[in-house]
C-alpha cells in the first residue's frame, strides 16, 4: 500500500548533471560525486555509477530491515553484513537491472538466516519498491 504525502518522514533530494557521465549531488551537500559509466559499458570508470549508488542504498536499507525482523524474532544479528549486487544489461525495452542480496549472519543458523532474509525482503522499503519490477535473488 503506498504511503500518503502526509506520512512522509524524510525526503532525500539529489540532482544529476549530464546523466551517467557527470555529477550527482544532494541538496544538503552531504553527497557530491562524479559519475561515469563503468568500463564494461564504454565509460572510463573513473567515478561511481548509478548501480553502485543503488546497491549502497539497498544494502543499507536491507540491513536495517534485517535488524527489525531479527529483533522481532529474538535473533542475534550482531556482526552481520548485507551485500547487494546490482547488474545492468540489455533487455527487450533497452536496459534493465537485476539484484542479488546476500547476507552473512555469524550468530544465526542457515535455516533461521534464510527465514530472516525472506522476512526482511517483505518489509524492506527498497524491496517493496522494486517488487514485480526487477528480479531479486536472496542468497
UniProtKB/TrEMBL annotation:
Protein family membership: Belongs to the OsmC/Ohr family.
Protein name: Organic hydroperoxide resistance protein
Biological process annotations from GO: response to oxidative stress
Pfam families reported for this sequence: OsmC
InterPro entries in the cross-refs: KH_dom-like_a/b, OHR, OsmC/Ohr_fam, OsmC/Ohrsf
Lineage of producing organism: Bacteria, Bacillati, Actinomycetota, Actinomycetes, Kitasatosporales
Coiled-coil annotated residue ranges, if any: none
Amino acid at each position: 500500500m503506498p504511503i500518503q504525502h502526509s506520512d512522509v518522514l524524510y525526503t532525500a533530494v539529489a540532482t544529476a548533471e549530464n546523466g551517467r557521465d557527470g555529477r550527482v549531488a544532494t541538496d544538503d551537500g552531504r553527497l557530491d560525486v562524479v559519475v561515469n559509466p563503468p568500463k564494461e559499458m564504454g565509460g572510463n570508470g573513473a567515478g561511481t555509477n548509478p548501480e553502485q549508488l543503488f546497491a549502497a542504498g539497498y544494502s543499507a536499507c536491507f540491513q536495517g530491515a534485517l535488524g527489525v525482523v531479527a529483533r522481532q524474532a529474538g535473533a542475534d544479528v550482531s556482526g552481520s553484513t548485507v551485500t547487494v549486487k546490482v547488474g545492468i544489461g540489455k533487455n527487450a525495452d533497452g536496459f534493465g537491472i537485476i539484484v542479488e542480496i546476500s547476507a552473512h549472519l555469524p550468530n544465526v543458523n542457515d535455516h533461521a538466516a534464510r527465514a530472516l532474509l525472506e522476512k526482511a525482503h517483505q518489509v524492506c522499503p527498497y524491496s517493496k519498491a522494486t517488487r514485480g519490477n526487477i528480479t531479486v535473488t536472496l542468497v
